[in-house]
Design brief:
By secondary structure, the chain is of the alpha/beta class. It has a domain at 10-101 and 168-230: Rossmann fold, CATH 3.40.50.300. It contains 7 helices and 10 strands. It has a 6-stranded mixed beta sheet, sandwiched between helices. Strand 1 (10-21) and strand 2 (24-35) form a beta hairpin. The longest helix has 16 residues, at 180-195. The two termini are 27 Å apart. 44% of the residues are buried. The model is unreliable at 1-6 (pLDDT under 50).
Length: 235
């Protein structure tokens, strides 16, 4: 399924993807395209396949059948080393509970993502500081996660996800652990990123997040795409 008003390069393509866990079917013949610059929200009840979809696209799990192509990589055909490189270079991930390393400062949490790809520590820290500055938390660069607010931790997590200039930013309930004010800040951040050209795929239970940040809504039921609609972003 493709958004009618999207003309950019296809960044993600799923063709008839099925995922089974024993007798349970998590994804049942899902076909989907996401184009460069799109912001797509995925919603649906718990257990409908949203998180499985995200894990498949991120290469954290493999399809039982069907193909997944992300920015030219056939994800299902990659070995473990290839998958690790794919995640470092192609994908940025933002999680509900931040997943920051407690024993590293904010800037070191961000810089580590680039150092794992072979970037020098000096260059990694330089870009990390630029990102933290752009996201409004440069003054907290030497703070450890435990001393940051939820909104600040999520901004650091977004900076880390953007560190290697990913083709696709995946966000799994990015406002789920935040208070209302911090959630509003992260929504604005995601919207700003998309308006600058970042391709987004957001899994959420929050209709406000979808309305604010996404231009297309995909609704899942029982492992299938049940509905798809264009969204007029709320102001």
């Amino acid at each position: 399924m493709t958004s009618e008003n999207s003309t950019g390069q296809v960044v993600v393509r799923l063709d008839d993807v099925r995922k089974e866990y024993g007798q349970s079917v998590a994804l049942d013949g899902v076909s989907l395209e996401i184009r460069a610059g799109e912001a797509v929200a995925v919603m649906g009840p718990s257990g409908c396949g949203k998180s499985t979809l995200l894990n498949m696209i991120a290469g954290l799990d493999r399809p039982s059948s069907g193909t997944i192509n992300v920015h030219g990589d056939d994800v299902g055909s990659l070995n473990e080393t290839g998958l690790a490189l794919f995640r470092r270079h192609r994908i940025g991930m933002v999680f509900q509970f931040f997943n920051l390393l407690d024993d590293l400062s904010a800037i070191d949490n961000v810089a580590l993502a680039a150092q794992l790809t072979g970037t020098s520590a000096r260059e990694a820290r330089k870009r990390a500081l630029e990102l933290l500055d752009n996201l409004g938390v440069a003054d907290r660069r030497n703070n450890y996660p435990a001393t940051l607010s939820g909104g600040q931790r999520q901004r650091v997590a977004v900076a880390r996800a953007l560190m290697n200039r990913p083709a696709l930013l995946l966000a799994d309930e990015p406002t789920g652990a935040l208070d209302r004010q911090s959630g509003e800040q992260v929504m604005k951040l995601l919207l700003d990123l998309n308006q600058m050209g970042q391709t987004l795929l957001i899994v959420t239970h929050d209709p406000l997040l979808a309305e604010r940040c996404a231009s297309r809504l995909i609704e899942f039921e029982d492992g299938r795409i049940a509905r798809e609609s264009a969204l007029e972003r709320a102001v």
